[in-house]
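Lecture notes, continued. The same structure-token format from the folding unit now serves as the input rather than the output. Read the line below as a description of shape only.
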């Protein structure tokens, strides 16, 4: 049963200090995994990071968190070097779960006086999509991902729908899903599975930054067959279950939304 599921190894969560990343970090720790988290927080939000790491350690697991820009090449390699040291002696694969949950991008229209710039589009795509490829490349090259590893990337319905000022992030989500498909294809022979997770509308800090988020919440609550929004812990439990799933389950966009998407 789900409540009895036990896992082992390390989870590396990109975007671990709030929302889906926070919930998944704690859930995987509850299942028996140690957690490395990458996050980018100011001093004012660091108490929440400390609360998360304390919760992981209270479950008897290790918490190794890095307050760095996950899209910075040098910082990425520093984190990986530290992980190599921390996971010495662990059974392969040293990193059982790589979760990409980075929500940092530009919300601007494509046209008009407030139109998005090239630099803003490039940054949004780099952080919210391309960084998954670069982290995977380095983790595979250093032997941290291998047979039994699972890659999860948080996407959204916005990757295929239109919303005001959402164009750059929509493009990033579409690219992210494409990257997942390609990684699934290339890594399948090694026993590594890669899937995108499409959560239903969830009241997170990232959602609140989207223009019109109040209306999105209202519509989702009305049309969801479960008569509520998706919660971060819904996604966290799904990722825990999928971590134990066969590697043959790969290359998908998996809806974790209580049936919200099928209602149109």
């Amino acid at each position: 049963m789900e409540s009895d599921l036990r896992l082992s190894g390390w989870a590396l969560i990109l975007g671990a200090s709030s929302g889906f990343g926070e919930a998944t970090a704690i859930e995987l720790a509850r299942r028996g995994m140690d957690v490395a988290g990458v996050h980018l927080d100011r001093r004012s939000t660091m108490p929440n990071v400390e609360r998360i790491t304390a919760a992981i350690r209270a479950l008897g697991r290790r918490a190794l968190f890095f307050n760095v820009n996950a899209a910075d090449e040098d910082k990425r390699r520093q984190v990986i070097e530290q992980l190599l040291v921390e996971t010495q002696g662990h059974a392969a694969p040293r990193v059982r779960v790589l979760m990409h949950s980075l929500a940092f991008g530009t919300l601007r229209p494509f046209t008009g006086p407030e139109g998005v710039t090239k630099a803003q589009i490039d940054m949004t795509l780099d952080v919210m999509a391309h960084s998954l490829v670069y982290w995977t490349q380095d983790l595979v090259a250093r032997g941290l991902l291998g047979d039994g590893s699972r890659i999860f990337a948080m996407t959204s319905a916005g990757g295929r729908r239109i919303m005001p000022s959402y164009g750059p992030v929509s493009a990033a989500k579409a690219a992210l899903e494409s990257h997942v498909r390609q990684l699934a294809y290339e890594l399948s022979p090694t026993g590594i599975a890669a899937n995108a997770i499409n959560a239903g509308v969830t009241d997170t800090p990232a959602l609140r930054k989207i223009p019109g988020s109040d209306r999105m919440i209202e519509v989702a609550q009305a049309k969801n067959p479960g008569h509520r929004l998706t919660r971060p812990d819904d996604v966290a439990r799904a990722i825990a279950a999928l971590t134990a799933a066969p590697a043959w389950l790969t290359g998908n966009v998996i809806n974790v939304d209580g049936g919200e998407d099928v209602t149109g």
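Point for the exam: The domain at 2-259 is CATH 3.40.50.720 (Rossmann fold).
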